[in-house]
Design goal:
Order of helices and strands: EEEHHHHHHHHHHHHHHHH
Number of strands: 3
Distance between the termini: 38 Å
Bound molecules: coenzyme A
CATH architecture of the largest domain: Orthogonal Bundle
Structural class: mainly alpha
CATH superfamily of the largest domain: Citrate Synthase, domain 1
Helix content: 55-70%
Radius of gyration: 21 Å
Shape: globular
Strand order of the largest sheet: 1-2-3
Length: 371
């Protein structure tokens, strides 16, 4: 039996959704660089689920379907309003609501291909609506959905803020969604595949994936990057902050990667977006501090930024509350989770590895009264 901590280096399945080879990331064979430059997120979702880029007609129909499925069951809105607001993380709310959503879907347990595609659309459309609705409820506002059809990116920003975003914000958010959409067998995607490989339903798979993404070593890192930047709050404090963190053997969020050793190919796009957006918003200090942090971590630890590092200042400049950074990651990654779930169903086998037992052996049972 092969033994490896954290399944490092283990190839656990075959997949044709996305690949990482020699630090190059592709979705269905298309370079992430081209997709980030030229596509709308809706095209990427279509590509991930159907394996090919949509025609104009297909894309228009797909957009319509997404827009038509945005609204949430009124019972779920009532539930969102009943949740405590203080000290509740929106990722916990999202995890709970996606699970609850299944209760209002008659096809929840139908794993037929067509039913799965219909559920895929519902999940992809409603997850942003849940996040935006909860964020508004926390601010004492009513949830809203757009009255006119908007792009996926503009739609979310509208549902969150109540006004149609400017082109720069819409384009930046779209690019961030494209860059986070899929990433081979990352922890949350693997979780979703493990879950549906028991032939459980898509809602269960996505709920499980949200739970995995929530952790600070995975999607939870982006929020913590912003916390670090806010704590440092000045370029002169970067070096002492990091030296203290190194001395305490703390991990610096947004750095390092299990697979990439020469850099995360998504980071350069986010770095550039961070540069532009911090300039436009007059918040250049976040970008300048980030660059300095990158220099020092490279010098001292040989580590490079991952997708989460520069996405923090990007989202901040888009006026998004910091506790929504990881839920936003979930909006995008839902597209990849679903593509992998569909692929898993297509050629399923139960995922059940082994553990090497290192516990006590040959224990003599002591009756309860004698312990
Ligand atoms: N800051 C400081 N040291 C780090 C580090 C970081 N962000 N990432 C890795 N290291 C160090 C570890 O301390 C370890 O050092 P050691 O061998 O002296 O103990 C070594 O690099 C290997 O790290 P390890 O955690 O075993 O690698 P991994 O492949 O299991 O983990 C991550 C990959 C992404 C979980 C890890 O780099 C990390 O925790 N990064 C911060 C969280 C983050 O940004 N997550 C988002 C990932 S996209």
């Amino acid at each position: 039996m092969v033994k490896t901590k954290g399944l490092e280096g283990v190839v656990a399945t075959t997949s044709s959704v996305s690949s990482i080879v020699d630090d190059v990331l592709t979705y269905r064979g298309y370079s992430i660089d081209d997709l980030a430059e030229y596509t709308d997120f809706e095209e990427v979702i279509y590509l991930l689920w159907y394996g090919k880029l949509p025609s104009l007609k297909q894309l228009a129909a797909f957009r319509n379907e997404l827009n038509e499925n945005v609204s949430l069951p009124s019972e779920l809105i009532a539930q969102l309003k009943s949740f405590p607001i203080k000290n509740i993380h929106p990722m916990a709310v999202l995890r709970t609501c996606v699970s609850a959503l299944a209760l209002y879907d008659k096809e929840a347990d139908d794993t037929d291909d067509q039913a799965n595609l219909r559920k895929a659309i519902r999940l992809q459309a409603k997850i942003p609506a849940i996040i935006a609705a909860y964020a508004r409820i926390c601010e004492g506002k009513e949830p809203i959905i757009p009255e006119v059809p908007l792009s996926f990116s503009a739609n979310f920003l509208y549902m969150l803020k109540g006004s149609i975003p400017d082109q720069t914000s819409e384009a930046a958010f779209n690019k961030a969604l494209v860059l986070h959409a899929d990433h081979e067998l990352n922890a949350s995607t693997f979780t979703s595949r493990v879950c549906v490989a028991t032939l459980s339903d898509m809602y269960s798979g996505i709920t499980a994936a949200i739970g995995a993404l929530k952790g600070p070593l995975h999607g939870g890192a982006n929020e913590r990057v912003m916390k670090m930047l806010s704590e440092i709050d000045g370029i002169d404090f970067v070096e002492p902050y990091l030296q203290r963190a190194f001395a305490n053997k703390e991990k610096i969020m947004g750095f390092g990667h299990r697979v990439y050793k020469n850099g995360d190919p998504r980071a350069k796009h986010l770095r550039e977006m961070s540069r532009l957006l911090t300039k436009v918003t007059g918040e250049g200090k976040w970008y300048n501090m980030s660059i300095k942090i990158e220099e020092i971590i490279r010098r001292e630890k040989g580590l490079l930024p991952n997708v989460d590092f520069y996405s923090a200042s990007v989202y901040h400049c888009l006026g998004i509350k910091h506790n929504l950074f990881t839920p936003i990651f979930a909006i995008s990654r839902t597209s990849g989770w679903i593509a992998h779930i569909l692929e898993q169903y297509e050629n399923n086998r139960l995922i059940r590895p082994r553990a090497e037992y290192i516990g006590l052996k040959h224990q003599a049972y002591v009756p309860l009264a004698e312990r």
